[in-house]
UniProtKB/TrEMBL annotation:
<keyword id="KW-1015">Disulfide bond</keyword>
<comment type="similarity">
    <text>Belongs to the glycosyltransferase 65 family.</text>
</comment>
<dbReference type="InterPro" id="IPR019378">
    <property type="entry name" value="GDP-Fuc_O-FucTrfase"/>
</dbReference>
<feature type="signal peptide">
    <location>
        <begin position="1"/>
        <end position="21"/>
    </location>
</feature>
<dbReference type="GO" id="GO:0046922">
    <property type="term" value="F:peptide-O-fucosyltransferase activity"/>
</dbReference>
<keyword id="KW-0914">Notch signaling pathway</keyword>
<comment type="pathway">
    <text>Protein modification; protein glycosylation.</text>
</comment>
<keyword id="KW-0328">Glycosyltransferase</keyword>
<dbReference type="Pfam" id="PF10250">
    <property type="entry name" value="O-FucT"/>
</dbReference>
<keyword id="KW-0119">Carbohydrate metabolism</keyword>
<keyword id="KW-0256">Endoplasmic reticulum</keyword>
<keyword id="KW-0808">Transferase</keyword>
<keyword id="KW-0732">Signal</keyword>
<dbReference type="InterPro" id="IPR039922">
    <property type="entry name" value="POFUT1"/>
</dbReference>
<dbReference type="GO" id="GO:0005783">
    <property type="term" value="C:endoplasmic reticulum"/>
</dbReference>
<keyword id="KW-0325">Glycoprotein</keyword>
<keyword id="KW-0294">Fucose metabolism</keyword>
Length: 375
């Protein structure tokens, strides 16, 4: 009798925890940092509504290319580590092995909060514009109609909201929820930041980063720094005054600006400020003999060379540029200085927090000036 009850109990638990249906989406907002922020939210959302998350390829933009390039998720990251949190499959596997059976072309419906401007009236226009069109075209996906899910939202930590999703869109009738954009907020919700621990580099990226560190940082630790200073960033930072929560600023000032006010120097620090802060870090961490610089534009290698010529440090960068390898290297630095407003920095900071590694930000918190301080 006990054995029978145990078996029945296990069966009930199995049925209750069975994951039904799939979530598919286009990571169509911004570049990698933004996509990574929203990925954490999409992961939490999928778990909240008890559906397998289909891992989208990363949307990338190459110089001279008119259309976005879709790079498979596992080109950079380990899929298995995500399964420690929730069930996932790659988009490539889903379209080849699962979609033909449960999501045939005549049943493909795009989801959006409300209608989007485009060629078709009263539609999500899920393929209108770049990267939307190129993303779905990569998998030969066309949509037969649209579904507006407003006023529902993506807050995975609102149990009532998750129940509404499950009730309104049961997997028996809606096996696939295909979202026009990520079912997640930007920046990442504070409740989802901890999910970074499940996002780990694959062996290829990890081995390349360790090899670079081994070959270039012999006999000492290294300081990793991220400089955001391209022309698009310069323009974005002009909006600091009227955008107190600009991009990833919450990682410094808090989601309600409870930890301070966003300043221009936090977004776009002057060269002199950067050099002073690097010198302070070197003075504090005397075991550091190298500086690794990641940047979207000016790596300031010449500036550092001049400013630090009397210190026993060497400045390194990747050539040619490789943003994902930059991220993997920065995540292993003995110490890190990043940009408060940048979602690229935010990815590094989250990974380092998981590992318990120290970090700080340019010009934050604001330092009280000391005229006697030696720089």
């Amino acid at each position: 009798m006990i054995t029978i009850i145990t078996i029945l109990t296990l069966n009930v638990i199995s049925i209750a925890t069975k994951i039904d249906g799939y979530v598919v989406y286009c990571p169509c907002m911004g570049r990698f940092g933004n996509q990574a922020d929203q990925f954490l939210g999409a992961l939490a959302f999928s778990k909240g509504i008890n559906r397998t998350l289909v891992l989208p390829p990363w949307v990338e933009y190459r110089y001279g290319e008119m259309r976005s390039i879709q790079v498979p998720f596992d080109t950079y990251f380990n899929v298995n580590s995500l399964k420690d949190y929730h069930q996932v499959v790659t988009m490539e596997y889903f379209m080849k092995n699962i979609a033909p059976e449960i999501w045939p072309p005549h049943k493909r419906i795009s989801f959006c909060y409300t209608q989007r401007i485009g060629e078709i009236d009263n539609s999500c226009n899920a393929k209108s514009g770049n990267p939307f069109g190129p993303f779905w075209d990569t998998f030969n996906i066309d949509f037969v109609k649209s579904e507006f899910y407003g006023p529902l939202n993506y807050d995975a930590h609102n149990a009532n909201m998750m129940e509404l999703w499950r009730n309104n869109y049961p997997s028996s009738q809606w096996p696939v929820l295909a979202f026009t954009g990520a079912p997640a907020s930007f920046p990442v919700q504070s409740e989802n930041v901890h999910l970074q621990r499940y996002v780990t580099w694959n062996s290829d990226i990890l081995n390349k980063s360790k090899l670079f560190i081994k070959n270039n940082f012999k006999g000492g630790g290294f300081l990793g720094i991220h400089l955001r200073n391209g022309q698009d960033w310069v323009k974005a930072c002009q909006h600091v005054a009227d955008s107190p929560k600009l991009f990833a600023a919450a990682q410094c000032v808090g989601y309600k600006n409870e930890r301070g006010k966003l300043t221009s120097s936090m977004c776009l620090p002057q060269k002199s400020e950067i050099i002073k802060q690097v010198k302070r870090a070197l003075k504090k961490h005397k075991d550091i003999k190298y500086i690794f610089v990641a940047s979207d534009s000016n790596h300031m290698t010449e500036d550092f060379g001049i400013a630090l010529q009397y210190l026993d440090v060497s400045v390194q960068r990747l050539k040619p540029s490789n943003p994902h390898l930059d991220l993997a290297i920065l995540g292993q630095a003995n110490y890190f200085i990043g940009n408060c407003v940048s979602s690229f920095t935010a990815f590094v900071k989250r990974e380092r927090d998981v590992k318990g590694l120290p970090s700080e930000f340019w010009s934050f918190p604001e330092r009280k000036k000391n005229k006697h301080e030696e720089l």
